[in-house]
Amino acid sequence: MADKIAGFIGIDTSCYTTSGAILDKQGNLLADVRIPLRVKPGGRGLAQSEMVFQHVRNLPQVFSQLKESLPVSVRPAAIGVTACPRPVEDSYMPAFLAGESCAMTLAALYETPVYRFSHQENHILAGIWSAQGPDSPRFLAIHVSGGTTEAVLASTAGPGFQIEPLGESLDLHAGQFIDRIGVALGLSFPAGPHLEKLAAACESPELVPTAVIKNNISFSGPESHVLRLIQKGCRPEAIARGVEHCIAESLSLAAQRAAETAGLSEVLWVGGVMSNRYIRLHVAAQLSQAGIKTYFPAKEYSPDNAVGAAFFALRH
């Protein structure tokens, strides 16, 4: 086995994507495979049992593609796997058991170490790997997705982070807001890319109110307002851009307040919602005016992926 490449494998089985990735010793990406979970037309999500079933079915295909992406086979030096949603006590979700079981099997086969950590840290590490920062040992990380809308103080602690919550969504997450409105507009689930494409055709957006309470955000009121706009027959593209603007404005204000609360000047934005170009540009402009530096991973590393898990294994 001495002539084999020592790669670092990452595995992530989130709510809507089965992911695997491999980094080399220098942190270069050797392979990145993702298979979205299937949601029936008109659906707004999946039960945990269905997530686990699809992950178990997808994982062999993920590793088959990972192997085909490499010029030679890889003997893993270490394996990183997401085992829970967030790095807090009692954080649990059955979907992550599929990936963890796969990681344990590979670890036993290759007699290589496996490192468990959280899905939230996976996003943060993928963001740092892609954006090449922040370099500070303390920074604001804002995770915006279908399952999380949260601002945290991230402090480096070994290969992972100590996380201190600074703000969150009080009801709907930003991704849920997008998906619910998208489905109401007749778009496929998950609706993020479809709503972004629809909004790009807008010339005059509908006004959607924001609700930011201290460092926290509420999207339930804006959702009700938008559903009424749909019932009135307002233009779909104007509604879509109004939703984007509402989310961007809410995130910008909450981020500024959270940064002031903790005395931070750097913000890393992660999560699938942050792949939206309009939202990225808006929050970057708003925070720049407030003297806060922003970091964004490349768009393809904002949604769920396993690159952060491979990076976690490498950092060990």
Automatic annotation (TrEMBL):
Domain Gcp-like: from-to ranges: 54-308
A Pfam cross-reference name: TsaD
InterPro entries named among the record's database cross-references: ATPase_NBD, Gcp-like_dom, KAE1/TsaD
GO molecular function, one term: peptidase activity
Entry keyword set: Acyltransferase, Hydrolase, Iron, Metal-binding, Protease, Transferase, tRNA processing
EC number: 2.3.1.234
Catalyzed reactions per annotation: L-threonylcarbamoyladenylate + adenosine(37) in tRNA = N(6)-L-threonylcarbamoyladenosine(37) in tRNA + AMP + H(+)
Record-level GO BP terms: proteolysis; tRNA processing
Name of this protein: N(6)-L-threonylcarbamoyladenine synthase
Organism whose genome encodes this protein: Acetonema longum DSM 6540
